[in-house]
Amino acid sequence: MDGQTPADQAPDGHLASGKAGDGQAGDHQAGDGQAKIAASPLSIASIVVSMTIAAIGSGIMATYVPFELTRTGETWAASAAVPALAFGGLLGCVLAGPLIKRVGHARLFSCSMAMVIIGAVLVAADLPAAWWVLARAIYGAASNVNFIIAQSWLNHAASNEWRGRAMSFFYMAFVLGLGAGALVFGQIPTSGNLAPLAVILVTALSILPIGLTRLPNPPAPASVNVNIRKAWKISPVGLAGVLASGGLSMVVQGFTPIYASTNGVSQGNVALLMFVMQTGLLFVQYPLGMLSDRMDRRYVLLITCMLIVMAGFAAFFSSFAALSLLMITFLVFGGSVETVYSVANAHANDRADPGDFVPLSSTLLVAWSTAATIVPLLVTMISPFSGPRTFIVAAMLVAVAYGLFILRRLKERAPAPEAERESHELRTAQMPNAAIITDPEGGTGAK
User: Fold this and answer.
1) Residues 92 and 100: beta-carbon distance below 8 Å
2) Is the Cα dihedral 299, 252, 352, 423 positive or negative?
């Protein structure tokens, strides 16, 4: 299934993926002398399938937790779960590298999926709402570890000719999996604990494809070296955009189901709303991303900020009585937020030298997670006094501030030379980019 034959295995049945005599033939990281086995696009199917199945569980839980907590009057916990999720993600992106070096990709993937299951069990156990907040933090840490493992494996398995397409397909499959999970939640009774049990089931299933893969373990990802000053020097617009995107994505994706539930929207319609938001990746990010390959990306980011503000105004004043119109509004809202991340990330890479890719990507990853924690935390603290629409206003303010910053930078710095620009790739702000950190060739110029 994964493009290897029995000849790729050691006599004892383990993958021959390292130096002889180290006692960990199948699980330790590949050394510099390891021959990389050529893989076809079909060989990465196990990784994509595993993460897509896991995304279905994530979509169920991301919709169920805010809906159920709001329905039972625990709105404070529904709001607190959003920054808790992001803070867990921050811990995950810092811990992933050392843990992978310690136990290897395959073992850590199973462990991180086990943490997802533990979080679902805490929700299923009918514990006080504070435990649900802890469960979301556990999921945030585990999910970022899973993303880095999957991206690392994809980067190692894919050849240069089709790596970009593979990553774009991976992001798209994951986001559509999230949407599918939201739709599945719409068909599950909220009474009892059937929803978290469904999450446990699909998470356990997601371990099987990647657990049975015959792809060799890739080298451990480069260490996460944060250098804010260098990232700012390379691309102020890129760094500021990733910061803005962290706050925007977590606020819009995290508080929308709370907002809908607070307004008495039915379970089925909340599920449909969350699914429609995920399709913004196709209908908003894709055309704007392609446009950014043909003009100064900063203008596209400025257009995107304007879209966020306009969609925010429409969402603020729209009534849930016109639900179809509101769903289209949130499709544009969510898709525009996702666009900020992907275009800002591409703009930063346009400005960077190859030797700066690893520290830049590390910094952007941590910057995203930090902003994704702070902005929702502020919204959570303010919302009890300012109302459930606070997250919409917060998103618009972030977009306005970032747009004004872009206007200033347009006057101070010329666009990147066309010959040095990279092609835009589909990326989702819900899955922070570790692609350069995990690139098998990415660290060669960074030392």
Assistant:
1) no
2) negative
- Three-state DSSP class for 15? strand
How far is CA 433 from its chain centroid? 7
For the domain covering 43-211+221-420, report its CATH number. Answer: 1.20.1250.20
* Residue 333 confidence (pLDDT): 94
Residue that the structure tokens 């373990």 belong to: 217
396-429: per-residue pLDDT in tens? 999 999 999 999 988 877 665 655 555 555 556 5
Q: What is the pLDDT of residues 228-267, one digit of tens each?
A: 888 898 889 989 999 999 999 999 999 999 999 999 999 9
Q: What token pair was written down for 309?
A: 């503000």
d(CA 187, CA 194): 11
Q: Classify the phi-psi angles of 82: left when phi > 0, otherwise alpha if psi is within -120 to 50, otherwise beta.
A: alpha
Q: Smallest Cα–Cα separation from 37: which of 72, 80, 7?
A: 7
Give the number of C-alpha atoms closer than 13 A to the C-alpha of residue 369, restricted to the C-beta side.
Answer: 28
Question: For residue 182, what are its two tokens?
Answer: 């939201």
Residues whose CB is less than 8 angstroms from the CB of residue 397 and which lie 6 or more positions away in sequence, other chains included: none
| pLDDT, mean of residues 280-287 | 83
Phi and psi at residue 9, in whole multiples of 5°? -105, 150
User: What is the CB neighbour count within 10 angstroms for residue 207?
Assistant: 19
Residue 107 belongs to what H/E stretch? helix 105-124
- pTM of the predicted structure, to 2 decimals: 0.80
Q: How far apart are CA 365 and CA 361, in angstroms?
A: 6
Q: Which of 78, 85, 84, 145 is nearest to 111 (CA)?
A: 145
Half-sphere exposure of 380 (CA within 13 A, CB side): 25
The C-alpha torsion from 348 through 354 and 358 to 362, rounded to 10°, is: -10
Over residues 366-386, the mean pLDDT reads 92
pLDDT of 281 > 80? The answer is no
For residue 279, which phi and psi values (nearest 5 degrees)? -70, -10
